Amino acid sequence: MYCYGVQVSNFFMTAAPFLTLTIALADIPTIAGSIPEEIGHLSKLRTLLLRGNGIGGSIPTAIGLLSNLVTLDLSNNRIEGTIPSEMASLTRIKTINFSDNKLTGEVPEEFQNMDILSLTLEGNNLSEFGTLK
């Protein structure tokens, strides 16, 4: 992932032991690239706000390793592909916003067993929503 042409992917590895609450890099159109798999090393992360940037690529499966994550907002980017079923292991997640991306496929069936309070998916090309709570 890049911001003003500077690679910030290594930031995730370096900061992992120290980040206990929030990463908020929202509405900064100069952030580009993709979310690195190393995001999964941020086990203490509670809030990840990356909305309104130039982020592309897919949602990394390692996001399912963020066991303390409560809020995830990746809206208004260029994220493609499917929603990884590994996200079902996010037992503390309450808010997910993936609106206005380029996601395709189905919402993972595992989402039906999650205790999500807010799931926002409009503006994508998802074919089925299933019977979500």
Q: What's the CATH superfamily, by name? A: Ribonuclease Inhibitor
- Tell me the fraction of residues in β-strands, as a range: 25-35%
Q: How many strands, what sense, and barrel or not for the largest sheet?
A: 5 strands, parallel
Count of strand segments: 12
> What class do helices, strands and sheet pairing give?
mainly beta
- The CATH topology annotation reads as Leucine-rich repeat, LRR (right-handed beta-alpha superhelix)
**How much helicity do the residues have?**
under 10%
What is the CATH architecture assignment? Alpha-Beta Horseshoe
- End-to-end Cα distance, whole Å, is 33 Å
Runs with pLDDT <50, length 5+? none
Structural Rg: 14 Å
- Provide the number of structural domains: 1
N-to-C series of helices and strands: EEHEEEEEEEEEE
- CATH top level is Alpha Beta
Describe the structure.
The protein is mainly β and 133 residues long. It has one domain (2-128): Ribonuclease Inhibitor (Leucine-rich repeat, LRR (right-handed beta-alpha superhelix), Alpha-Beta Horseshoe), CATH 3.80.10.10. The chain has one helix and twelve strands, in the order E-E-H-E-E-E-E-E-E-E-E-E-E. The chain has one helix spanning 9-15, and strands spanning 2-3, 6-7, 22-24, 31-34, 47-49, 54-56, 71-73, 80-81, 95-97, 102-106, 118-120, 125-128. It has a five-stranded parallel sheet with strand order 3-5-7-9-11, with no helix packed on it. Strands 2-1-4-6 form a four-stranded mixed sheet. It has a three-stranded parallel sheet with strand order 8-10-12, with no helix packed on it. Strand 1 and strand 2 (6-7) form a beta hairpin. The model has no long low-confidence stretch (mean pLDDT 84).
